[in-house]
Amino acid sequence: MIARAGAGPLRHLVVLRHAKSAWPDGVADHERPLAPRGRRDAPAAGRALAEADLLPDLAVCSTALRARQTWELASGQWGTAPPVRFAGQVYAADVPELRDVVQAVPAGVDTLLLVGHNPGLEELVLDLAGDGLDNALEEVRLKFPTSAIAVLAWRGTDWRDLTPGTALLTGVTVPRGKKK
């Protein structure tokens, strides 16, 4: 169902927008923490990835506090968290910068999780997806809210092969945690 033209193994780029953040007075944007809803939704995102069998071989996460907290709460739902790289260039990045981050991933990584921010993540998904299953592309175009997960599948021998229009957007979900 995911098979696409191209050589190399099937790879997945899993894009996770950070969970809902708070807006405390006097706190710089980079240091904004998760809001209570974000603290509920981030673990739900981790559970959704585990249930979909999309645990990453590597995660690349923005250095912003809300992204780091999302990563910690999501990956805390797994038995063992994969290696993570905290990358300042993911914070406030545009599509070319995000594509550079992804294309620098080692060839041995089959599933990459990218944790970051909008509008860059939404635009990256739309840039890389040449097609989508069901109405996945339309969902991303309409809204890519906090805690949203987009899964892109593609074939290639190296992450540098992931270029505009070469991936299939196989799904989009927005996990939400339950209030206690």
From TrEMBL:
<dbReference type="InterPro" id="IPR029033">
    <property type="entry name" value="His_PPase_superfam"/>
</dbReference>
<dbReference type="InterPro" id="IPR013078">
    <property type="entry name" value="His_Pase_superF_clade-1"/>
</dbReference>
<protein>
    <submittedName>
        <fullName>SixA phosphatase family protein</fullName>
    </submittedName>
</protein>
<dbReference type="Pfam" id="PF00300">
    <property type="entry name" value="His_Phos_1"/>
</dbReference>
